[in-house]
Every structure is written in structure tokens, then in C-alpha cells.
Amino acid sequence: MKAILNGKADCQVLLFSATFNESVKNFVKKIVEDLFVKDYNQLFVKKEELSLESVKQYKVQCPDELSKVMVVKDKILDLGKKVGQTIIFVRSRNSAHMLHKSLVDLGYEVTTIQGALNHEDRDEIIKEFKQGLTQVLISTDLLARGFDQSQVNLVVNYDLPVQYEHPSEPDHEVYLHRIGRAGRFGRKGAVFNLLCNDKDNMLMSKIESHFDSPVAEITSWESEEDFKAALKTAGLL
């Protein structure tokens, strides 16, 4: 922005961002007022509202990390074949790699997208998913926003989203965008939140409180019938 100002002071400057949290707003305000003018215009798109009409949320208590993998494999992916495509959100690249390897080793065909991939590889993975060539996509929050695919009916929060600077606090906006990947364009959708310790339950409780929206609990992580019932309630079976 300094280079723009130094090179051509008499110009109109537009600044765009997919998201504007408070820290970004404060940064932009300081830069604009320091370098340009005190009087400027701001336009914000209205935040997407959490809708329970088309997407049903569930939480699943898992004893440990291994049981989370087994839930994904034996319940969600096996049943998911009948209802559409699935996106599994993880918190980090390491988690993405670990889950991808675990599922592939168990014989499942999944693809993974995360920030370390180059642009061409990411574009190819997204293209194949949009064309329906792949049914299960593991992703960091790279695809939490702005990715619309009508065939995605299941979203799995393998890891709940947390604030980067305050990892003990949930990132409500990212959670909202994640679950918004299911049930696009008026279709039905279901979201499964996998919880396996006190921190996960605390994060989930804060998310429920923030949105004033209790999330139904799957009675047993080992019960296929409970998962079938959840998908039936969501209108997917």
C-alpha cells in the first residue's frame, strides 16, 4: 500500500478480503488512516446465518484418537456412500496427513487438500472433487469458506476449529463456515463433531452456547444404528 501511495498518490484504492475479523479491521483502519484519508467507506457482506432447517448437527463422544478414525471409517464413510460426498475438516496439516494415511492404509480412497500443496495440485484436487471423481475430501480450513459443492451432504469436524491466538477458545465463524459446506443450495446435510477429551467438550459447549443451539449427541460411537438414525433425521436416508 505504501508503494501504491508513493508511486501514484492520486488514485482510488479498493481493499478486499474474504473475512474481516476485528484484528484485520483494526489493521486496515490504521493503515488507511495513516497512509490515505480519515474519511473512507466500508462495505461488509452480511454474515451467513446458521440454519438448522437443512443441516443437522451431531456430536460423537470418542474414547481416543483411534476411535475417531474408526468412527470415520466404519460409520460415516460407509454410510456416506449412500448419501453423497463428504468433507472431513482437521485442524492442522499433520492431522490431515495422519488421517489420510490411516484411511488409505485401511483401504479407503480419500484425497487431502492443505496449504502446503502447490496451486496446481490444489486446483486439480478441487476439480476432481467437484466432478465427483472423488467422494471423500480431507481438508484444513482452506475450504471452510467460499467452497460450494451441491453434492456435499456430510461434514465431519474431526478437530473442532480454534482461534489461532487463543487455542482454548473455539473459532465460531470458522465453525459456521465449515458446517455451511453441507446442505448447499437447499439440500439436506448432516455434521458430525468428533469429541474425545475434556477440551473438545468444552469447545463444543461454547459453540452451542454461542449459537444458542444445542447439538444432539450420538448415544454410542460404536452403534451403526445410531448413525443411521441420525442420517434419517437429517433426511439423508
UniProtKB/TrEMBL annotation:
Record InterPro entries: Helicase_C-like (IPR001650), P-loop_NTPase (IPR027417)
Alphabetical UniProt keywords: RNA-binding
Main localization (coarse): plastid
Gene3D superfamilies associated with the record: P-loop containing nucleotide triphosphate hydrolases (3.40.50.300)
Segments forming domain Helicase C-terminal: 75-226
GO molecular function, one term: RNA binding
GO CC term (a single one): plastid
Protein's name according to its UniProt entry: Helicase C-terminal domain-containing protein
Species this chain originates from: Cuscuta europaea
Phylogenetic classification of the source organism: Eukaryota, Viridiplantae, Streptophyta, Embryophyta, Tracheophyta
